[in-house]
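Onboarding guide, step 5: your first structure request.
Type a short instruction followed by the sequence, for example:

Predict the 3D structure of this protein.
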Amino acid sequence: MKKHNFSAGPSILSEYTIRNSAAAVLDFEGTGLSILEVSHRGKEFVAVCDEARSKIKELLDVPSGYEVIFLGGGASLQFCMVPFNFLNQKASYLDTGTWASNAIKEARLFGEVAVVGSSKDANYTFIPKGYAIPDDSEYFHFTSNNTIYGTQMRYDPDVNVRLICDMSSDIFSRPVDVSKYDVIYAGAQKNLAPAGVTLVIVREAALGRVSRAIPTMLDYKTHIKKESMFNTPPVFPIYAALQTLKWYQSLGGLKEIEQKNLEKAAILYDEIDRNKLFRGTVAAEDRSIMNVCFVMTDEYKELEAEFSAYASAAGMVGIKGHRSVGGFRASLYNAMPKSSVEALVESMKTFERQH
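The system replies with structure tokens like these:
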């Protein structure tokens, strides 16, 4: 039976990425060695790292003056590195979910944090609007997509201060105006590679503005200067990332990918809205095209466990909602084929007919 991988992360990867990465595990670039055992300073892997950074710049149309680096520690380390490098006195944050809240917690260790908007009291079911960012903020930080609650900001905000974004779960899902940002960071395990590497895009001119001493490993300048090789980088995830980036280019780039994502999400949301057994959980205008969250309607709440078992038997993997929310979550990352979304919808329709 075909499995349809809706896991939120680590998540589905393209067949192209898996096939090529698997081949490199056996023989990397004709070296007779596995990618798992080669030196990160060998010319073959240095070329991989350079090509991956170059393709990121091409796909996202990164302007001059920015550097792309690969780091460890996940996005959670960036919650600390961002304020370490950019927060002297005050920054503004938007609270839209668990990861945004975690970023706020870390930033408060370094200075004043103005939470300019929050949907926490409404269980993060919408993106706050109409908020004002204090002029004395050194930057504004937001999380573009909220995997747990299923909301998304599919636009680049116009703000009067420096802009920083955690794009961990929707990077490469749409074109981005990188020139609006000082930092974009993303854990790779949603739309890029296996877990273990973090992508950071940073405007070099924005660095060096804090008065504190920054530990060597937490200073972006360190990793820019050493081209992601200050310490041993996560070699295999970077290689897999390169395969994904090549695949994205073969699809025609981010505009084409965004259209495919919008189509997939519309198929599932239309069924959620139509089907008497299910309902969405967030404001319609803020629905994520990456993570679709839904629950059984109150009338059919007792069928939740039964549908979960039914969908699993039909090959649906990873649709259980986050433990803090419950219900269901179908993650529709770039590598998710439309046929898998259609298979989930068909299982929802069949289950409805049976009840």
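Each response can be followed by summary notes, for example: The two ends are 25 Å apart (CA to CA).
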